[in-house]
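# nightly structure sweep
# worker-07 picked up a monomer target from the shared queue
# config: single-sequence mode, recycle default, output format = structure tokens
# input follows
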Amino acid sequence: MSAEIASLSASTTYYYRAFVLEYNESTSLYDYRYGSVRSFTTAAPPSYIPGGWLEMPSYTISGMSGTTSSSLSDLYPLTHKASMGGKTQRNYSCLYDPEMYASYWVAYPLCYDHVNGSGRSDQWAYDPDVPEAKQTKLTNGAYGVSIATANYSNNHYARGHQIANADRNGVDGMCDQTFYMTNLTPQLQYGFNGGIWNNLEGAIQGLTSSCDTVYVITGAAFRKKGGSEAITTIVNTRDGKTLPVPNYYWKALLKVTWSGNSVTAARAIGFWLPHQDLGNDSYLNYVVSVDQIEAWTGFDIFANLPSSLQTAAETNTNWNSFRSF
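# output follows
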């Protein structure tokens, strides 16, 4: 099922596949389902903010323009759910682009019960909500592409998770969904995926022992807004498809305090890493504000956070301040 949200074939007419919000009384959350393709003639497509979930970014096609080599005409906004604690709950959401074989972002809540488990499942699988032809095959191994890097003469591209399997190793069904092709991108194994990126993921998972929930957005970026970076491509030896390689990976994190059903305070922080062999470098050298990530990606990060709290929360660049919030 296509989730096309815009086609810029005419200068002022946009086409999108509508989604319908439905209130779920058992979870007190809004779920959504796809509707029919519609058109409108306003200056920009509508934002995508399903459910009112705090981890969700919003986006417009015009906002994303220039950050990718894609036409942005066939995007798949997805939310995967699985059983946790005897109830069907949201696992993660993503914005998948079959032209890039990548999700621009993957958004999810993270708590202690998500990570308090025994390990990975390695159930590599196609995403059932996207036609297989629009995914690249990684079910039987990684990309089969080696590359010499600064610190390793025989580096290679690994199947890099955006929501880490360890972010869900406490819930089997949720962990299995992290192995969907739509959650994977080519990441340098040595000096990145198995090093600094893994260390950053571990630090974020460690936050769950001292707070209720961390809201996480993980992203793969090909160009900064207004940039002209060259985009490297590789050929996946499993199916012969040509895949763009992200130039950057990023994370945006949010903590909040509640009073009843209202958010009363918030603190956020971001990380922006060049996709390179970074050796033994520390992720703390790549802290940025969420505002900066918004400027580079064109997304409205944590769009459902009350606007009165966004300004102060999204300018923070102090990791210790965020960690102790």
